Amino acid sequence: MPEMNTVSYQSRILMAMQIGVSAVVALGFYIISGLWLDAAAAAYGGLSAVFISVLLRMDVLKAERESAGDPSRGIRVLMVGAAQRFFAVIALFVVGLVWLKLSPLALCVGFVLAQLCYSMFARVTQNEIRSAGQENK
Question: What is the C-alpha separation between 13 and 70, in angstroms, rounded?
Answer without folding.
Answer: 31
